[in-house]
Amino acid sequence: MIIEAGHYALVLALALSIVQASVPLYGYWRRQPVLMDMAQSTAVMQFIMVALSFAALTYAHVVSDFSLRNVVENSHSTKPMIYKISGVWGNHEGSMLLWVLILALFGALLAIFSRHMPQVLKSLTLSIQAWISAAFFLFILLTSNPFARVGVPPMEGQDLNPILQDPGLAIHPPLLYLGYVGFSVTFSFAAAALISGRIDPAWARFVRPWTLLAWIFLTLGIAMGSYWAYYTLGWGGFWFWDPVENASLMPWLAGTALLHSAVVMEKRDALKVWTIFLAILAFSLSLLGTFLVRSGVLTSVHAFASDPDRGVFILAILVFFIGGSLSLFAFRASTLRQGGVFAPLSREGALVLNNLLLTTSCATVFVGTLYPLFLEALTGEKISVGPPFFNMTFVPIVIPIFFLMPIGQLLAWKRGDLLAAAQRMTVALIVALLFGLALAAWHGEPVLAAVGAGLAVYLIVGSFVDIGGRIFVRKASTSQMLARGLGLPRSAWGTAFAHAGVGLSLLGLAATGWGVEKIVTLRLGDQIDLGPWRLELTKIEPRPNSNFDALVAQIQIRDGSGIVTQIEPARRLFKTRTMTTSEAGIATLRMGQVYVTIAEQNADQSLDMRLYWKPYVSLIWLGGLIMTLGGGLCLSDRRLRIGLGRAAANKGKQKPNAQPHPVAAAE
């Protein structure tokens, strides 16, 4: 009964999305405020229906209801409860249900927290959001029904993919989807603005918090996914330029450009056409990522589906929304007023340059990811584009971004003084130079690692130069400087922390050049040096578990003073799927990590192992958390997020029947 109720709730959600998509749009066309108001209540009801459907599928996994095909193929009665719950979205059908749940959640949040938004913009945005929901509801119900039954329920399920039986599955996909789907709101805002013909700084202020929210979750999702791959797959890396990794990086780059472009539009009423285009692009790239993962056009550890019917359906969704939005954009772009004028040497100019570099880097990732697919489709030839290509194309484009980020913060709006900004960066340059030289002397080659570390320190210190100039003034007491610091807008602190987080991640990436890797065979009692540490294999033992058998090695890590800590890498054999996985043993020491995996156990009981010492590697993920903190501080700035948006809304408020008719607005 619960399963049927969940299926029926999903069908009701589809019906509600169709109503939400069509009625407010018709109300706008006929200038009927009552019809437009239906968007809010319908959005909330749609979320409730999807939540009930998702809860029903979760219940089926928790109680191991093997009458459902989804549960049979992705669960097992002996699986730990956390993996029964996270396994709900550890498969194609369940993950798509999670996708539409988050999509409906954003629609409901937009309906609830949009009291100060003009009615036309709000209703049109919710209507566009519902069109997206309706397309994915149809996709799920027609090609990926999570509530499909089996004729004769088996006694036991086939278990979840062992690689996915990890706490990371409970965190990484929801965070990534919150980022992907979050950009649907900015897309809907852009389409609504193009339909209504009203694009102004107030629009940018309404869009900015939703863009920030999506960017925060996508940043966390990418960082979590990187760390998950790092410790789960056992290959010692955190980024391989896998096509699906690239699929998450592309909307992140476009979303970062959108954040900066929206600031220019908000402050200077400029870059309107470009900002609208970026809002469309960010979600379009999110849809592209969905197509890559779900269509089966590529082979990846992340890819779920290989059913061509699903791929064709998602491709149709992709063409409809991307093609439709770009057509609307092309139809409307010529009618948009360009807005404020600014000098090339200004903060606006720096943000424009930032946008050009970000979108160019995004384009290189796009080409490197999709070129092999196009080539195979046209000629049948199969090639792979890997790290060498991206290192030669992507890296040279983003390095100038790191160098220019702190300088752009110091330039004034409309017209800036580049020489004065460069002079204020003198301290950051000196600190970076000394730090890079010290690391080069300490670690030696490669020299590029020291150069990258110096650039990272320049970015970290430079991110706080502007704030330091506002706080530390001559003859000011400590209490006065503290008051000045506390009086600064949280968005200023957020910007500094977000940029510094990029610098921390860059420092961790640069330090990988000083890493040590060894492939060895160890017996009990053997010792080996790894960087500044000495490792000793002290125990090898089997450890049975409810759904897997593990071979565990105990390794003690020592320095000159004695035992520092110990780690336990393992090799797991999952019984149901007879699949073996590696569980890395990781110890974080001095911001670096000792990383050990078991490759194989030999007949003489010795172990083939991979040993890594990765100095400062923890900074990569710490930087991601700092970036997220910066985004959260900006999002919490009520002066920018709510106060100005409310003032702009009140200033530009018009009655629904006073809004320009779509045809008139286009003329």
Description:
- The chain has 667 residues and is an alpha+beta fold.
- It folds into 3 domains: 2-341 and 637-666, no CATH class; 425-514, no CATH class; 516-614.
- Helices cover 64% and strands 11% of the residues.
- The strands form 2 sheets. Strands 2, 3, 4, 5, 6 and 7 form a 6-stranded antiparallel β-sheet that branches.
- α1 runs antiparallel to α6 (119-143), α6 runs antiparallel to α11 and α9 (243-268) packs antiparallel against α12.
Quickly describe the structure.
The protein has 22 helices and ten strands. The protein has 667 residues and is an alpha+beta fold.
Secondary structure class reads: alpha+beta
The share of residues in helices is: 55-70%
Biggest beta-sheet profile: 6 strands, antiparallel
* Average pLDDT taken over every residue: 89
Number of strands: 10
Kindly report how far apart the N and C termini lie: 55 Å
Shape: globular
When the domains are counted, the total is 3
Tell me the fraction of residues in β-strands, as a range: 5-15%
Which stretches are low in confidence, meaning pLDDT under 50 for 5 or more residues running? Answer: 641-667
Number of helices: 22
Rg over CA atoms, rounded to whole Å, is: 27 Å
